[in-house]
Amino acid sequence: MTGIVEENQVVPITLTVNGRRHRLTVEPRKLLADVLRQDLKLTGLNIGCAHGVCGSCTILLNGQSARSCVMFGVQADGAEITTIEGIAPSPVDLHPVQEAFWEQQGLQCGYCTPGMVLRSIELLRENPNPTRDEVREGISSNLCRCTGYQFIIDAVMDAAERLRAGETSDPQSDDAARAHAEKAWEVERLAPGMGEGDATPIPSSHP
Ligand code: FES
Ligand code: FES
User: How many domains, the chain?
Assistant: First the structure.
């Protein structure tokens, strides 16, 4: 192995996404966002700018928020990833941050929302009792073209209260991981082939 990748060569990688391990073969140039959306069919994350500016493609990578449009899938080899599909404790429940966004009308078109929610989860993990200014600064990494941000800030403040009151649903926790594994099993039962195993690589939408 020379380290030089030939054109059209695919590379094996392993990703643990929402508690489930996937073995994939991907083109080295394929963006992580495209690997998640196209190969794993996790279309909750949205691609807005594709330049690392807007935050709509935010995921949690080894627990830290990251922009999946500015890294390659091969760079995430071996990583643990949480997407918006992986945060709810069960197929019929929402994460407290999702509940708060819903209750406080923290979204309009919803395009920024998956990234906003994941960034908010990280923010509230680091600072469980933020001021409005701290929330404003904390979500400044993510752009919203619709809401004017005030309802999003209301939602994050509400989510902070919910989490402090014990509505815990940390996607990294054992319970959450167990719930995700059960959900993944159900997905596998209903849609065989979507889970662990070789996903068929398809062309990237980006050059
Ligand atoms: S789509 Fe990734 S930051 Fe805008
Ligand atoms: S709700 Fe439309 S971009 Fe934020």
Answer: 1
